[in-house]
Amino acid sequence: MRDSDGKLKSLASLFPLEAPLFAVGGYVRDGLLGINSYDTDVCSQLDVYTVKTLLSNSDFAVSDKNLRMGTVIISSGDFKAEYTTFRTDSYDRTRGDHAPTGVEFTLNQRLDALRRDFACNAVYQNVLTGEIVDLVGGVEDIKNKVLRTADEPRRVFEADGLRVLRLVRFAAELGFEIEENTLAVAKENAWRVKDIAVERVRDELDKIFVADTKHPDLRLKNGHLVGLRLLDELGLLDTLLPEVAALKGLQQPVKWHLYDGFEHTVKAFELAPPRLRWVALLHDVGKAECMAKFGNMHGHDEVGARMARGILERLKFSNAETDRICDLVRWHMVDINGNTSWQKLRVFCAEHIDIASDLCAFKRVDSEASGGEAHDSRLKDVLEEIQSDGTPLRLKDLKVNGDDLVALGVEPKRRAEILKNLWRETVLNLSLNDREKALAYLEKCAEKSKSD
Questions:
Q1: Are 220 and 212 spatial neighbours (Cβ–Cβ below 8 Å)?
Q2: 119 and which of 130, 138, 181, 333 could share a cystine (Cβ 3.0–4.6 Å)?
Q3: Are 16 and 123 contained in the same domain?
Q4: Which among 423, 419, 415 has a CA at the least distance from the CA of 392?
Q5: DSSP states of 121-145 as a string?
Q6: Integer Cα distance of 41 and 302 in angstroms
Q7: Residue 268 near residue 293 (C-beta atoms within 8 A)
Q8: pLDDT, tens digit, for every residue of 1-22?
Q9: CA 168, CA 162: separation in Å to the nearest integer?
Q10: Same domain, yes or no, for 301 and 369?
Q11: Which positions ≥6 away from 46 have C-beta within 8 Å?
C-alpha cells in the first residue's frame, strides 16, 4: 500500500456512489507498474463547487487552482491531490499553447480520457472499489511499455506543444518505446514548443536530464541519455538549444579526442552525475564559435561561459544556478596541461572553493568523455590538501578581521583589499594562520597605508 492510499480512500468515501472518485494518470500507471508514484491526480463528474460543498465539514481542505479548468487542490496533512472535473478541452491549433482556449464539462468519462495526452496516462481506477476503467487501451500499453497518444496523434500534439516534451520525458523516465506513428507526428509538431512558456520548457528539460533518477525501482541507467537522443531526433535540440546542436560534425584534435564536438558533449552528458549535466551539455558550446572566428578552439572555455549565460538566461534559470553552471564552464580547462604551479592551484582552489569539488568531478568526466580512461586532475589533490591542512578557505576563517584594521586606523576603503591579500598569503603560507603573525602582517599594511 502506498502512503497516500489511506487518505485517498477516506476522501473517496465522501463522494456519492453515483459519482465515484477516480484516481487517474501517473498514480494509476505507476501502480500498475509496481513503482512509487509522486503525484496524485483524481477526478469525477462532480464540478468543483459541489466538491467544495461536499468536503466543507471534513478533514480535507480545498484550495483553488484553476476554477475555469475545473481544477482544485485537495489536501489533508501531508496528503495532497489535484482534483479535476471530467471535461473536454479546445485549443488554438495554429499555435502550441499549453492552456486550452475553451473548456466544457461532461459526464462522459471517455471524452475526458480522450483529452489526455497518452493512453498510459488515461487509465482510471475507482478509489473505493479498485476497479480499473480503461477506455483507450492504456492498460495494454503499460503492460507492453509503449507510449501512444490517447486520441489521434495529430489532435493530441496540435492541441498542446508541451506534449512533445512530455513524450520525451515519459519515454526517458519509464523506459517505454514510442509507437511509430506517435513519434512521427510528434516530430512534425515539435515546432510548437516555441509557443510554450519558457519556464515550462525549462522544467521539462530539467526533468528529462535527470530521468534516470525518477524511478529507481525501474533501474534505468541511461534514461537521461535516451531523453537527450530523443530531443535530437525530434529536432528539439535545434529549436531549444541550437548552440549545442551546432557542435555536430565539429572535428576535434585526434590527439585528445575520439569524438566530434557533439558526440563528446553527449558522452560527457551520459557520464556526468545529475548535478553536472547542464555543465556537461554546455561546457564546449564555445568551440563552434571559436573555430568560426579564429580557426581554432583556444579560449572556448571563456567564450562558452558567455554563451552558457545567454542560454540559461533565455531559459530563465535562477541567478545562483546560472552563476554555478557558468563558473564551471569557464574553468573546466584549468590546468589542462598539468603545468600550473602548485601555489597557483592552491590559490585557485581557495578562491573557487564553492565550485571546486564539482569542478574536480567534471574534469574527470570530461577526460573520460574524450575517449580515454577517466582520471582525476591535479586539482583534486590540491583541493584535498587545502581541505585537510588547516587552510583558511574563506576570509572569515582568518585569525583577524576588519575590527583589527579599525583598531589600527586603516581607512575603510583599504580594509577589504588588505584582508583579501592576507588571505591569499595565508593560503600559500600557513604560518600566517596565527593571530600574532596575522596581526603583525596587518600592522605592516597599516603603516604602509598611512605613508601612501
A1: yes
A2: 138
A3: yes
A4: 423
A5: G-EEEETTT--EEESSSHHHHHHHT
A6: 46
A7: no
A8: 466 788 999 999 999 999 999 9
A9: 10
A10: yes
A11: 15, 19, 54, 85
User: 139 with 205, same domain?
Assistant: no
CATH value at residue 233: 1.10.110
Mark whether 134 and 8 lie in a shared domain: yes
- CB count within 10 Å of CB 78 equals 8
**144/2 same-domain check:** yes
* Domain assignment present for 33: yes
Distance of alpha carbon 257 from alpha carbon 151, whole angstroms: 46
Amino acid present at 409: G
Sign of CA dihedral 317, 320, 326, 328: negative
Grid-cell match 513503482, residue found: 35
C-alpha cell at 452: 601612501
Look at 372 and 185; give whichever has higher pLDDT: 185
- Helix, strand or coil for residue 273? coil
Residue 64: count of CB within 10 angstroms of its CB: 10
Helix (H) or strand (E) holding 83: strand 79-85
What is the per-residue pLDDT across 75-98, written as a single tens digit (0 to 9) for each? 999 999 999 999 997 766 666 565
The reported pTM is 0.92
Please check whether residues 411 and 401 belong to one and the same domain: yes
Same domain membership, residue 445 and residue 301: no
Rounded CA-CA distance 172/176 in Å is 7
Helix (H, G, I), strand (E, B) or coil at 414: helix
CB 373 within 8 A of CB 380: no
Instruction: List the domain range (segments joined by +) for residue 406.
Output: 395-451
- The 8 Å CB, 24+ separation contacts for 368-375 are 368/267, 368/271, 369/259, 369/264, 369/265, 369/267, 369/268, 369/270, 369/271, 369/280, 370/256, 370/257, 370/258, 370/259, 370/264, 371/257, 371/258, 371/259, 371/264, 372/258, 374/271
What are the C-alpha distances in Å from 162 to residues 57, 98, 165, 296?
38, 6, 5, 38
Measured over the CA atoms of residue 163, residue 168, residue 173 and residue 179, the dihedral's sign is: positive
Q: How many domains does the chain have?
A: 4
- pLDDT (tens digit, 9 = 90+) per residue, 57-69? 999 999 988 888 8
Distance separating alpha carbons of residues 308 and 65, to the nearest angstrom: 35
- Which residue has cell 459519482? 19
